Amino acid sequence: MRNQIRKYIKTSTSSAPLAVFRIGFGVMMLLSVIRFWYNGWIETLYINPKFHFSYFGFQWVKPLGDYTYLLFLVCGIASLLVALGFKYRIAIITFFITFTYIELMDKTTYLNHYYFISLLSFVMCFLPANAYFSVDNFIQKKQYKEIPKWTIDSVKLSLGIVYVYAGLAKINSDWLFKAQPLKIWLPSKYDLPLIGETIMQQHWFHIAMSWSGMLYDLCIPFLLLYRKARWFAFGLVVIFHVFTGVLFPIGMFPFIMIVSSLIFFDSTIHHRILNFFRSLFKSIKPRNESIASSIYNYKHQNIVLPVIAIFFAIQLLLPFRYLLYPGELFWTEEGFRFSWRVMLIEKTGFAEFKIVNGKTKEAFIVNNSDFLTSFQEKEMSTQPDFILEYAHFLGKHFESQGHQNLEIYVDNFVSLNGRRSQRFIDSKTDLLQQKESFKPKDWILPFNDEIKGL
After folding, report:
1. What is the dihedral of CA 322, 323, 326, 330, to 10 degrees?
2. Ordered alpha helix ranges (H), 261-300
3. Alpha-carbon distances of 381 from 239, 336, 387, 439, rounded to whole Å
4. 365-388 pLDDT, tens digit each
5. Residues 6+ away with beta carbon under 8 Å from 55
6. Annotated domain spans of the chain
7. What is the longest distance spanned by two Cα atoms in the chain?
8. Cα(206)–Cα(176) distance, rounded to whole angstroms?
9. What is the pTM (predicted TM-score) of this model?
């Protein structure tokens, strides 16, 4: 076994696929930053709100006021430099730090694909993605036509984890047998040409979409790995992500996954892509290809490999942390984030907070719109950690105004995947007495139904 591992580590392959991936990744990220800026989301999501929800352990990560624009600017420049392969190591580390900081500024904006980009950019910090077809090659007058095979496989594994875990998460009774939440979402697309008012309204189509989504996620990484099925698989990738991009507001994610899937192809395809770029940008071609090294020499591979191994071990185990919590995962959402449970739940909720003087019993109701945007209020009303953090914010706010002996209670009802709403948080629990931690939140009331699945 050890000999096989050593042999694998020493195996080299063409550096072209990683070069194409680097270019595609950088361009996609640059377009994402431009899109975010153009739509005014920096202001509406990070500057205008009076309060921002934070991740446990990262409460110190906050928007920087008007300097938030500078943060996005640095992130965009870093992504451009990654695409060009100019000062690559500095560029990818800068991108990882700035993008992850942006992601952590407000929990309200959490999306699985933001998390995926942070993880992928972290892995790329350790990869020689500038070994071939980069501005660094041009400056250093050398390039590496071969790199360790594990560097490309690490990107494939990152993509595979996303797909397989997303597929496993879809093996549940709500998704497969009730077509939820697709049964809620798809009929709203009635304005789509040809199929909006007909097929989109049919239960059989909702079921078909649910099952095909599950099978697609579970099978696509293996089909991409199988050479004879690769072009067919890539066609499925394009069709699936374009279709989901039309149906749902998921931004650049479909294009990111389509471009990323190219890394599964043989180097001949990537050389054709690079030759196309050469015809457009001849000046970035290294002047002295004859002195190029044949194999990239990893200087600190004995340090990098254990880091990468630990990283992937965590990624494989982290989605199962929900098993440590009681209750229905989709209801409590304890262990739900960072586990590739993509588009599995539709929650609507109502949360009314009551501020009570514990001694006099005088009370008043909070107008949430005084502190939260409509988007923040929607997310807060259905997620227990949001509710707890907001309650503590209210406590500090009203204490600063002179209120004493504060107790805060919430009247909270939530509907999950089209079910009738039920009380979510114990209305007799003083939220100011509860602290955020990794322990189960026993003040979440039990779910009155059962969702079977992994």
Report:
1. 40
2. 267-280
3. 35, 16, 7, 21
4. 999 999 999 999 999 999 999 999
5. 61, 104, 107
6. 347-454
7. 85
8. 9
9. 0.93
